[in-house]
Amino acid sequence: MNPPDLIAPPDWIALSRELKSIAEAGLRYSEGPYDRERYLRLHEISSLPMQAVAPDFKWPQEFGYATPKVDVRAAVFDENDRILLVQEASSGEWTLPGGWADLNGSPAENAVKEVREESGIEVEVMKLIACWDKDKQGHPRQPEHVYKLVFLCRIIGGNLATSHETSGADFFSADGLPPLCPHRAARHYLDLAWQHAANPSLPTAFD
């Protein structure tokens, strides 16, 4: 047994996610009433680790086997090699256009839709720049486990505009970037996007 000062502290977010996943898989696949009762209780318990920092937190009960959520982001460049960023109406911070992937659309279709809705720009997807686990990219932790897909896109039309989600949309040079949203974007996302724009034959990054 390790001495107490060498025992790593528990990852409460990871524990909470795993308990939720086990509970929802059990509720999906078990048939016995007593088993279902136990899994319902386990689902209630799965929120407790999160409530240490967010007392009102409660996991929603989702159907089926729990999997990571998907966040799509689009890297779009103008003729001056400036990158498109949108300003979040909720925080005033800037990010690559994108968001949660909607049902009934491919990842690329979702990226095109998000760019149009958040910035007014029409694009087509050229390639996948990166497929990343958000937890491994230096972002603040959040309850959901998230995969981030970053696509390189080409402008085919439209004009800059805002939406109910965005209070700004503009193109920025590498040495003139605004404050980035720590949850939705990171400088290394943008730097990698510039590299792929200059050399589209680069392989997709992943972790």
Shape: elongated
Poorly predicted spans: none
Radius of gyration: 20 Å
The biggest sheet amounts to: 5 strands, mixed
Distance between the termini: 32 Å
Describe this structure as you would to a colleague.
- This protein has 207 residues and is an alpha/beta fold.
- 29% of the residues lie in helices and 26% in strands.
- It is built from 5 helices and 8 strands.
- It has helices at residues 12-29, 33-45, 48-51, 107-119, 187-198; strands spanning 69-76, 83-88, 94-95, 98-100, 121-133, 146-158, 166-172, 205-206.
- The strands form 2 sheets. A 5-stranded mixed β-sheet has the order 4-1-6-5-8, with helices on both faces.
- Strand 2 and strand 3 form a beta hairpin.
- Helix 1 packs antiparallel against helix 2.
- The radius of gyration is 20 Å and the shape is elongated.
- The model has no long low-confidence stretch (mean pLDDT 93).
Keywords:
8 strands, elongated, 3-stranded antiparallel β-sheet, 5-stranded mixed β-sheet, 207 residues, alpha/beta
Quick overview of this protein structure:
Helices cover 29% and strands 26% of the residues.
